[in-house]
Each structure stands twice: as C-alpha cells, then as structure tokens.
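Quick one: structure for this chain?
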Amino acid sequence: MAQAIAETFGATSTTDEVLSGIDLRGKRILVTGVSAGLGIETARSLAAHGANVVGAARDLTKALVATNQVAKEAVAAGGTFELIQLDLADLKSVRASADALLNEGKFFDVIIANAGVMATPFGHTADGFETQFGTNHLGHFVFVNRIAPLLRSGGRLINLSSAGHRYGNVDLDDPNFERTPYDPFVAYGRSKTANILFAVEFDRRHRSRGVRAAAVHPGGIQTELGRYMDEGMLQGLVDRINQQLADAGKPPFQWKSIPQGSATSVWAGVVAEADEVGGQYCENCHVGHVVPADTPITVVSEGVRAYALDPKNAEALWKKSEEMVGETF
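Got it. Here's what it folds into:
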C-alpha cells in the first residue's frame, strides 16, 4: 500500500495530493461518519482512486444525498461505494452492523473510524454512557473489535482523534461524569485521548498478524462537528489561540479546508509505511512528537501528550471499556 518514493507532505497537503499516483483498485476500505465533512471527503478521495469503499452512517437518507459525488467518482475510477447503517451511540445498532459485516465475510484492508461528536451538552447514549465517550470511543471500540477478524494481514485501523485530547486524560474512575462536574471540552478531550489509546492497544494486540493501528488529528476544520458550539464560543476559542500564537511570535491560526483535513487520514491509512505510523499519533501528514505536559491547551501547535501514548494507560482503558460494554475482545 505504501508509496514507492517517499514524498514530504504537510499541513496544507490535500487528499488528492497525498494520493497522487496511488492505485487502490482491489482494496476494500470502511469509513465511518460519511454523511458530513471529513467522512465524505475521505470516502470520495479513496473511491476516486479505485477503492471499494463501505461508508457507515447513522442517517442513511442524509448519507445517500451527501455521498452522491462519492458514488459517481467510484464508478468512474473502477471502484465501488456502498452505505451501511451504524449508530455509534446505540450498541444494539453497533452490534447489528458489525454482525451483518461478519455474516457477509468480506475482508477489509483499512478501517477509518472517522465519525464523532464534539462539545455536546451533557447527555447519555442509548446504553447510559456519557455522550462523547460513549459515541466517540465505546461505539467504535465495540464495532471495530467485533469486525477485527475481517482486517486482512497488512491492514490498518485509523482512529480520528484531535489536538483536543489535551483537554483531558481518560478518567477511568468516573468515565460518565457521575462525580465530576461536566465540561463539554473536558469530555471531548477524554474521548479523543481514548481514541489514541485504543489505537495504541489495538496496534499492540494485532501487529503480530500484520495489522497496524494509528490515531490522527485532522487539524482545525469548520465542519458539522462544531454544531453544538455557538458562534461566540468558537470565536472566543480562536481569539485565545491567536493571542497565544502572537505572544509566541507565530502567525495567526488558519482553518484547514476539508480536503486538507482529510489528508492525514488517507496518508496514514494507505500511503505511509506501516512501521512508521503503527501505534502513533499523526498530524499534518507526519507522525506527531510528544509535547511537555505543561503546554497550554489552546495553543494550536503540533504534538501529543505522553498520557495518550502510554501503553499501561491504553491497556487499562481497554479493560475498563470491556467492563463498560459487557464484552471482552
């Protein structure tokens, strides 16, 4: 899957630039969250290079309209595109979707766990989990682990995380905010840290059979993900970021386009060398470095907190997640 000649990509690279010259015909790739934003572009770029893409979405009617162009480009490139129903906030739906794929028995080369929610008001999933941890982490944890036997040797799992993981390490003593005051960004941070830790432990468990996993931060992109934030909250965040960047003598924050935001997912999934990205946190089309614990949260700079890559933390989260969902993998 990796490119023969290594090219240097960065923050402004787009999906089409990253996939230039890559032939994905015969590869089968699953992308969750294909009804909006990054999910649509990730699916489109892969299908446009001949991949057989399976897109998962909660609302199939919305997804069908949203992915019209994806389907057209798939046909033109000799690939295929199909949709499946998956509600990550309801484990009954998650298990039914995974079981349907298992019954079909077709293998995957890459799974891109792209779907997610951000900064939601306090609430619970159908199974009683805090909304962000339950949807972003536990839904994918059950879905991916159930279909893991379908990942062929040489395959990869790519988990969408975020620089927002800096808002908080996982709290395995109180994952549902039963004793902790709820903060939308802390909850988001915990769930995004969980996405990284899940990739770390999945990579450890599956690398012996040639399957690797990585987490990616797409960058700051204006998508439906921010629908729970009012304009004032978002502008306030950007203003704080820009003040910190100015104080550090750096240029102001730039939003990424959706094709730029999706580039790291496809780079880590089908372009980069497996040993380069396996068990790592990637951003701007390269592997991120560990940053000091006292790095300010709102600084939009590169790097990952050490707790998000800690193998003991990853193993503890895996065990706690199994306990919460009542299923062992």
